[in-house]
Structure formats: structure tokens, C-alpha cells
Amino acid sequence: MRPADYRDYLVDLLKNSSDVQRVQVIDSGKHPYALAATVAGKERRWQVIGQLADGAKHATPTAPVHSGPPAYTAAPATGAPDAWLAGVIGAAEPADTERLEVWSTRKKTGEPGVTVHFHNGERAFVRLI
Description:
Strands 1-2-3-6-5-4 form a six-stranded antiparallel sheet, covered by helices on one side. It contains two helices and six strands, in the order αβββαβββ. The chain has one domain (3-128). It starts with a helix and ends with a strand. It is of the alpha+beta class.
């Protein structure tokens, strides 16, 4: 899924989350395809970066593939931000999503984020900025 499309999907999804007080698209600044969400009284900014499926071209969108929704674990809004976001995404049961990878659960931890693996081979990397 293209970064702008996935960012817009996340904005709509977060607007319906009871943990979110405010969400908005960030169109300016050094991080393209970003959004800000106020969660449990804290503003968190996320950037979406996309990776096309093997052999895909930017000129032609890759057709979505729908299968089962991803497995996920719900996490509290006061916990790890990427685990919480993955829980919100998973709870929506997106049929185009194969799996969610939470970065804070990796052995070698770095910045918080989520890799969204789509059934069509594309990926979205959603990182906390």
C-alpha cells in the first residue's frame, strides 16, 4: 500500500479508537507521510514509509490481496507505543494485512515502529518520529 494511502487509513482508524483524543495529518516538515495522534494525553508522531512488492512499479498500483486478518496482541495505550499501534491495527481485522511486526519486541531494539506485511507482498513501515 502506498504511504499516503496507508497514512490516511491510519488516520481514519485512529479517529475511531477510544484511546485517541486527537489525530491529524502532517503535510509539512522533514517527514513525509506523517501523522500526529494524541494518545493517553501524549502526542505521538508517526511516519509511514512504503515498500513495493517485488517487480511492482510506482506507476501502477499493486492490486490488494485479501485473505485472513493478522494475529495481534492488544496493548495498553500507556505501554510501548508501537505495540499499542499494532494492537489498534490488528483489532480492525484488515483483510489485506498478512502480519504485523512490532519493533520493540525484537532482540536488537531501536526506535519504536511497526512493519505491516500485506498479502500482496507490499510493506508499510510505521515509525515513531
